Amino acid sequence: MKGLEHNAELRAVILVSTTGVREKIALRKSWEDAAADLRLAFDEGETNAEAIVELFTADDCVRHLEPQKLWQFVSEGEFWNVASTGQAAAVAREHIAYLLDSALEDELIDQRDVVEALTMPELANWLPRELLGAVLRGALENGKNRRGFTAVDMLAAAGPGVLVQHVPLADLWNAVVRPRIARRHGYEASPESPARSIPAKPTSTSTRSERAFLEDDEPEEITRVMTEEALGMLRPVRDEPFGDDELDGHIVMIDDVAKAM
């Protein structure tokens, strides 16, 4: 009823059907009075949950109720951790496919979110060979027509209904649904940042290089303790974003620099 504070008409519809109060009176009741009447009718067995839900459609729930509580409702029970076979698994797959389809349709996420979260190497491990063949044919066809093969093309061949049949549901939930739908849009709170540990104070025997990486020192101190040769090795690193392969290469190069110090 609090969610319907500004919708007297829908409050009245629910009260009339569940408590028997007249419509004119129901329209004049505040949400607090309406809640008290509905609670009394519920406690006395004059109405039940099913009757209320029939009058309060899913669209009205989304429109008027708290998103966080709705998300808690649709995600309770950790159904994505069920065994991979049986009726419960079939229901869980259908539910997650529906969540992904709805999120894509309502533009809460896009195809790139799904592919990036699951990663192509993992998708190649999970998807069956015949499906990978269809994906490869699509990529070759796009290349023949001088078009790139995008995440949109990937999900056209293996959409949510297909993914839930082959990708572990826990991976879909923890990589896509929870971080990119629930947390990104505020339906579920992000986990608290871990407490920062306090570094030990450098002792008199600590080397200057060791002290440079402790939290108490200024960031630029790190560069001052590096040799000119080491700094020269780092200069090729670019400021703009780069792909995973380039990132791996730069990590190796930085590691080599550290060893040279």
Question: Could you characterize what this model shows?
Answer:
With 261 residues, this protein is mainly alpha-helical. Helix content is 63%, strand content 0%. The protein is built from 17 helices and no strands.
Write the layout of secondary structure elements.
Blueprint: H1 8-19, H2 23-28, H3 31-43, H4 49-55, H5 58-64, H6 67-74, H7 87-105, H8 111-118, H9 120-126, H10 129-144, H11 151-157, H12 160-166, H13 169-183, H14 208-212, H15 221-224, H16 228-234, H17 244-260
Helix pairs in contact: 1-3, 7-12, 7-13, 8-11, 8-13, 16-17
Brief sketch in words of this structure:
The chain has 261 residues and is mainly alpha-helical.
Poorly predicted ranges: 193-244, 246-261
Let me know the average pLDDT: 76
Number of strands: 0
Distance between the termini: 67 Å
- Any idea what the radius of gyration is? 28 Å
Features:
single chain; 261 residues; mainly alpha; 17 helices; elongated
